[in-house]
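Re: [ENG-882] Designed sequences occasionally contain unexpected residues at chain ends

Forwarding the minimal case from QA. Structure tokens:
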């Protein structure tokens, strides 16, 4: 028996903020994918080094799956669909593997963002599972 409860305002705030977060990730992916050498040359040297690092193809694939899967999961969360949980798992696993690779192999100026991404992914997996348990997603 599927009981549909009405979500609270907090549910929608979390879902919209998560969507904005993931759309920023989509934007970051698109910038990285379509950045030209001329565009990179206009950045300060520290930023140029970050864009000139060549990552393996699987890393780029994980990045794409993480951000596009996360954005779609957020849309499904807003639509109150259970499939959001499973997409958050896929997105989270991809993002955690991607960020783990960065932390292990690239000399980052700050580890705050990779750790924040991992925490946010885990939170969205937990929150979507909790929303299923509470009967908010069907």
């Amino acid at each position: 028996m599927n009981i549909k409860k009405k979500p609270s305002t907090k549910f929608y705030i979390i879902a919209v903020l998560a969507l904005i977060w993931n759309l920023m990730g989509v934007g970051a992916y698109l910038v990285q994918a379509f950045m030209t050498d001329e565009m990179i040359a206009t950045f300060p040297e520290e930023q140029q080094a970050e864009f000139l690092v060549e990552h393996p193809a699987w890393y780029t694939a994980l990045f794409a799956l993480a951000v596009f899967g996360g954005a779609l999961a957020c849309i499904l969360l807003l639509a109150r669909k259970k499939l959001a949980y499973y997409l958050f798992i896929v997105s989270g696993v991809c993002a955690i593997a991607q960020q783990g690779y960065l932390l292990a192999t690239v000399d980052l100026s700050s580890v705050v963002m990779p750790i924040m991404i991992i925490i946010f992914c885990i939170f969205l997996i937990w929150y979507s599972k909790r929303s299923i348990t509470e009967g908010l997603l069907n």
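QA comment: On inspection the terminal residues look reasonable. The chain has a mean pLDDT of 90. Proposing we downgrade this to a documentation issue.
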